[in-house]
């Protein structure tokens, strides 16, 4: 019994790893193991001898079992020590940045121009994107035969079978929002109406949905001079330059009379656009004095009140300010590559409040 014990305790102590230890356990205590075999032999012994041998075999079994467990723990500790010597964690490494969204350049520009016009006393008006043809066309002095009302320019909604009323349209400008504001608030009034508009147009410079901001100021003595100052002030603030030069070119819109298209002076040196200097002109918006019929449609007496109005494409001025080369950039989900070219539009606080990755 003592030699058995010495042999197994030595085998346990010499086992180099868990596999070796398991081999020793199976050899001694497994179903066909040596100690198990001796225990099975107890049945054939005389009762007295069985009692003595049983007790010492059980003690031996417990001792081998305890030695196996202790060696297993020791081997585990040694393996962990070995791993800790080679594997380590640098807790000073910077974390991996998570990609996060930023505010879309169009939304950003909407916020910027809203703030600029708010400083000049304009409030923001909003309205439906699906409009009746009266609000979108008639109220704006756009007669039924006007080309804008043709099928190829405007998205018309469907009417139910047998319903012969004129169909609603996807608004083609935000002007109907201003008609609604006039009817709701009366004069004097100063509002801007930013939002989505829809026209059946699709090429490199046009998309079927785009963004506009229109504005108007109605008061007792409003003139083109007020319009000119307001637009100049807006451009100075928006393009962040001290000096801007605007050129008013006579034009025609159904809803304004007189009407003017407005160009801004700029230079283009090696693809770098600079607003306010140079010998080039770029059209940025349309404007004019509100047509008396439009004032009347909005419930405002044209003999008592005058108003100026203007309209511009937000996508267009966003591209101009932030150097975005192509309208299609707005429709690709990931604009982060633009930062590579130094477009500051993307270096804004992200939606979660931190700095974007
Ligand atoms: C009311 C009365 C008059 C808004 C105006 C323009 C001229 C104009 C275009 C610019 C580029 C549309 O986005 S664009 O294609 N707009 O040229 N818009 S005056 O006049 C109004 C608006 C509302 C009640």
UniProtKB/TrEMBL annotation:
Catalysed reaction, written as an equation: tRNA(Phe) + L-phenylalanine + ATP = L-phenylalanyl-tRNA(Phe) + AMP + diphosphate + H(+)
Cofactor: binding details: Binds 2 magnesium ions per tetramer.
Binding positions (Mg(2+)): 257
Main location class: cytoplasm
EC numbers on record: 6.1.1.20
Cell compartments where the protein resides: Cytoplasm
Alphabetized InterPro entries for the sequence: aa-tRNA-synth_II, aa-tRNA-synth_II/BPL/LPL, Phe-tRNA-synth_IIc_asu, Phe-tRNA_ligase_II_N, Phe_tRNA_ligase_alpha1_bac, Phenylalanyl-tRNA_Synthase, tRNA-bd_arm
Pfam families per the UniProt record, alphabetical: Phe_tRNA-synt_N, tRNA-synt_2d
Cofactor: Mg(2+)
Record GO terms (molecular function): phenylalanine-tRNA ligase activity
Annotated ranges, domain Aminoacyl-transfer RNA synthetases class-II family profile: 107-332
Top-level taxon of origin: Bacteria
Keywords: Aminoacyl-tRNA synthetase, ATP-binding, Cytoplasm, Ligase, Magnesium, Metal-binding, Nucleotide-binding, Protein biosynthesis
Uppermost EC category: ligase
Family indicated by similarity: Belongs to the class-II aminoacyl-tRNA synthetase family. Phe-tRNA synthetase alpha subunit type 1 subfamily.
Subunit structure: Tetramer of two alpha and two beta subunits.
Name of the featured protein: Phenylalanine--tRNA ligase alpha subunit
Organism the protein comes from: Tabrizicola soli
């Amino acid at each position: 019994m003592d030699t058995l014990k010495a042999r197994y305790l030595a085998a346990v102590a010499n086992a180099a790893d868990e596999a070796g230890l398991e081999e020793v356990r199976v050899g001694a205590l497994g179903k066909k193991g040596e100690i198990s075999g001796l225990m099975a032999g107890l049945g054939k012994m005389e009762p007295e001898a069985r009692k003595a041998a049983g007790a010492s075999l059980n003690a031996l079994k417990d001792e081998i079992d305890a030695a196996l467990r202790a060696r297993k723990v020791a081997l585990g500790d040694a393996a962990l020590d070995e791993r800790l010597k080679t594997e380590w964690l640098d807790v000073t490494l910077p974390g991996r940045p998570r990609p996060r969204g930023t505010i879309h350049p169009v939304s950003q520009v909407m916020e910027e121009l809203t703030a600029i016009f708010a400083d000049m006393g304009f409030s923001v008006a909003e309205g439906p994107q699906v409009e009746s043809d009266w609000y979108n066309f008639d109220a704006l002095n756009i007669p039924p035969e006007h080309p804008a009302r043709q099928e190829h320019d405007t998205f018309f909604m469907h009417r139910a079978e047998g319903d012969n009323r004129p169909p609603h349209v996807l608004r083609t400008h935000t002007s109907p929002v201003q008609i609604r504001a006039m009817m709701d608030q009366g004069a004097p009034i100063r509002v801007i109406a930013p939002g989505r508009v829809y026209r059946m147009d699709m090429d490199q410079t046009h998309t079927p949905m785009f963004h506009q901001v229109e504005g108007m100021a109605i008061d007792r003595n409003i003139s083109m001079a007020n319009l000119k100052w307001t637009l100049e002030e807006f451009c100075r603030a928006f393009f962040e330059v001290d000096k801007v030069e605007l050129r008013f070119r006579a034009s025609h819109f159904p809803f304004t009379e007189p009407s003017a298209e407005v160009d801004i002076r700029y230079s283009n040196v090696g693809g770098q656009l600079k607003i306010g200097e140079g010998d080039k002109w770029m059209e940025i918006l349309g404007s004019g004095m509100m047509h008396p019929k439009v004032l009347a449609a909005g419930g405002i007496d044209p003999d008592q009140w005058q108003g100026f109005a203007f309209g511009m494409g937000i996508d267009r001025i966003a591209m101009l300010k932030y150097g975005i080369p192509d309208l299609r950039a707005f429709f690709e989900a990931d604009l982060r590559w633009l930062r590579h070219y130094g477009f500051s539009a993307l270096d804004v606080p992200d939606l979660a409040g931190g700095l974007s990755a």
